[in-house]
Amino acid sequence: MALLEVRDLVVGYDQYPVLHGVSFDVEQGECCVLLGLNGAGKTTTVTTVAGMLQPQSGSITFDGKELRKGSPSQRVAGGISLSPEGRRLFPRLTVSQNLKLGAWSRRRDSKTLKRQMDLVRDYFPRLAERENQLAGTLSGGEQQMLAVGRAMMSRPKLLLIDEASLGLSPTVARTVWEVTSRIKADGTTVLMVEQNAGALPFADRALIMEKGTLVYTGVGDELRTVNLREAYLGSGA
Ligand SMILES: Nc1ncnc2c1ncn2[C@@H]1O[C@H](COP(=O)(O)OP(=O)(O)OP(=O)(O)O)[C@@H](O)[C@H]1O
């Protein structure tokens, strides 16, 4: 059984559906990338999995249990954590305070907190050097690292990352994806949303969305062919 099973998901804003029956699995221990053009429905998919939107129909099963209505913090407590589009940091809090907030809905004994903090420091040494700096004064890349680091503070089984590369230079985007690969290698399952096909080498499998439906799922290697990329991701991908 897959760690995450999404079936026939219909989700809309004000009842107007933008996901029209999306189904996919994310297997335990893999890193999947959900690709597609602007407005394809990627953010809607991951925010629904994270409990921020309620589906009109369909089901989401995580770790063997169907997720019924529940708050995002209940999902975090259950092992699903989201690094959201736009990062949503607390700009007037320090790096370290932002990280600690990521752990609030999980058990917070000081030993566990310290262990998780050490792990995030190890993933992102740049954050470790800037722990007392206000988040709003970090560079875009550092803010993205902080968003992923904060999501990791809850020790998720499934880490959702929405558009980590947005607005970053290719080198910084690569650094973030490399850490994503390490996170996966250390045992956290990852589903990342991207518009940037540069993420493909870091993923075991790709899912491609178009206009609220999944149009392709396959191994990353297949997608390195120019035709598929042009068909689904636009010629600039
Ligand atoms: N809060 C909202 N209210 C109404 N419609 C929305 C809202 N958020 C997204 N939509 C619409 O839902 C559709 C899917 O958007 P979504 O953000 O999920 O796509 P996406 O693939 O993540 O694209 P992007 O990269 O631009 O975030 C789009 O047509 C979008 O206009």
From TrEMBL:
Entry keywords, A to Z: Amino-acid transport, ATP-binding, Nucleotide-binding, Transport
Entry GO MF terms: ATP binding; ATP hydrolysis activity; branched-chain amino acid transmembrane transporter activity
One Pfam family cited in the UniProt record for this chain: ABC_tran
Coiled-coil annotated spans: none
Keyword Protein transport applies: no
Keyword Cytoplasm: no
Domain ABC transporter: 4-236
SUPFAM superfamilies per record: P-loop containing nucleoside triphosphate hydrolases
InterPro entries noted in UniProt: AAA+_ATPase, ABC_transporter-like_ATP-bd, ABC_transporter-like_CS, BCAA_Transport_ATP-bd_LivF, P-loop_NTPase
Domain of life of the source: Bacteria
Biological process, per Gene Ontology: L-amino acid transport
Family: Belongs to the ABC transporter superfamily.
Protein name: ABC transporter ATP-binding protein
Native organism: Streptomyces cupreus
